[in-house]
Amino acid sequence: MAKRTRLERGSLNPDDILRGAFELTDEVTVDNLSMPMLARHLGIGVTSIYWYFRKKDDLLTAMADHVLRESVRSTPSVEPSDWRGTLQNHARTVRRMFLGNPILCDLILIRPSLSANVAKLGARHNENVIAGLVESGFTLADAVGIYSSIQLHVHGMIVLQRLQDKNRMSDSPSDAYYEILPVSPETTPLLAAANENGFRGGEPNDHNFEYGLTNILDHAAQLLATTPAQKAAR
């Protein structure tokens, strides 16, 4: 762990603590972060941290607030003129962003804790996506259903990948569920043939992500093409 320059007396502020917390968490994970460890990393007494953050949960909430603000700013909007292309880009961007920053996944998806104001920001972000879909011609029910399906697909694959990565880094690593299933041409010929062609069921990889995303978008396109009479009969 790289040694930081000790902060001068009286120069500490919450932003310094947050920066240090992100630096340290990148090395030790959210689960293993502790206030005494952070104090040593910053070169200060632990009571200096408690002046701004009374407990670890308060610090993690501030960290979650920060990363959610950044992720909302970096996530593309859904445009009514090209709902499918922009929603697809939205889903891909969220997945890429979370997989590239494990802290983001830990703080937002696995251990969600947000201040009231930032939680409202997240709600407005979801509202804007739904509004874009409604403006594209979807009913409110379909817009909510489509975006919920996208979120569950994206977030579920992100969390599964993150949990598998954390498991592999643990003191007692083990294989993922799909990796321990006995697959052979003799007992499971179809699965064996699929594996030979690079198709692995249950793995949160790019192929399975794109397959699921395409199917959700195809279904959404079918819903949009449904006539008013067909919609009324559903």
UniProtKB/TrEMBL annotation:
The keyword DNA-binding applies. Residues 34-53 bind DNA. Pfam families: TetR_C_1, TetR_N. InterPro entries: Homeodomain-like_sf (IPR009057), HTH-type_TetR-like_transc_reg (IPR050109), HTH_TetR (IPR001647), Repressor_TetR_C (IPR004111), Tet_transcr_reg_TetR-rel_C_sf (IPR036271). Transmembrane segments: none annotated. Residues 11-71 form the HTH tetR-type domain. PROSITE patterns: HTH_TETR_2. Keywords: DNA-binding, Transcription, Transcription regulation. The keyword Transcription applies. This is TetR/AcrR family transcriptional regulator. It comes from Rhodococcus artemisiae.
